[in-house]
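So, can you check this record?

>
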Amino acid sequence: MNAKPLHGWVAAALLALAGQAQAVDLLESWNAARNVDPVFGAARAGVDVGHSKTAQARALGLPQVSLQAGAGGINSYNKINHAQFSAPGMGAADSASFTTKTDLGVDVRLNVTLTQSVLDAERSTTQRQLAKQAQLAEVQYSAEEQQLMLRVAKAYLDVLLAEDALDAIQRQSRAVNEALDSAKERFKEGDVAVIDVREAQARADALDSQKLEAESNLQLAQAALADISGLNGQLSRLPEAADLQRFNAGDLNDCVERAKRSSLALQMQEIRQGIATDEIEKHRNAHAPVLNLVAQAGGEELRGLGGGADSGLINHAVSVGMQLTIPLFTGGLRDAKYSEAMALAEQSRQESEAVRIRAAQAARTAWNGVNVGQARIKALEQALQSAQTRLDATGLGKEVGDRTTLDVLNAVQEAAETRKELNRAKYQLLLSYLSLAASAGELGEKQLTEVNAVLAEAEKY
């Protein structure tokens, strides 16, 4: 067997395997993106940060235990004059003097202290803030998860749209090249004027330039999807006969109210507003009494190393009691911090209102995208049918001499562009449907699976 037939069999086998390869669908792209997208990875790490905030809040309510130890050299001289002194069998003295002295001594100290907060308004406020920061991390994770779904869906549909744009140009290019070849042959035979050849050639040259741009756009779209998901390959497509009427936007007012109530962006901002409000309480309580339970155990031992005249000291003690601290003056720091917290809380409140308005606007935009999209798709489907009818009629007209080559090329372009716009409208509707769910914080794998099922239906047609 020679090499050429062998190569032919190998090529045929590879083409057969490629035809059997299963297309990458939207759900697979989403699941892959969860593992490779760095933005979502940062959100996942943020959840771990939130867990540490929970542990910090819990730690503030537990006892704090500390150990203090020290040792060092010491020279000590102490003298007490005019002291009163009395001892059994020794009488009393009104003007006694005592002197202790230690040269080149060693002083060793060891203390263990346990402190348990009993009343501390500032600490309690900090605990609430830490708990809210942990909650914020969880909501941020959910928000990034939904945003990743939208980014993957947009990148996926952008690839399909770029493929459609290239396909539209290729359809026109094939028709133009056929028309050009026909015009050249008929010009040689004297059936058409040279203008037909030149018009077809000019249209072919323009399409070659557009094809290069479309191929570049497709490569960029494929690279963007690969960057976010790590996947390459053929994608599941949307069939022409797919029924998109199943994607119902529901009632507008209901969608807007859900967005104003449950938007994840709004939830995050309201948590931030709560943290800012707690900051007011924290600085308002800066002069509040602080009551702690304090227990101590330890001692001190001093030994002289300089000779018999050196004094020594041994002191061991255990104490348990309550410690009350009342801040009296902070130099105006408390008032300045309190004023700052008030301003920040008002700023946060206004930002919450702005986020609520944006959430409602996003819901309206997405709702219109679904409902207007449904009507636009129907109109474009009718337009495509009309364009195809015109193309067929123009082709027949050219055969009998009633239409020119330019008329046919214009009809081909109109049909190809209408088909591309129809597909664009379908992709926009699908993305609007996902965005509508995201506006109310409800986007999940359920909605993504619904869209993916429509794309996967391409294999049935």
Remarks:
- The first helix runs from residue 3 to 20.
- The beta strands are 64-87, 91-119, 290-303, 313-325.
- Residues 183 and 191 are 9 Å apart (CA to CA).
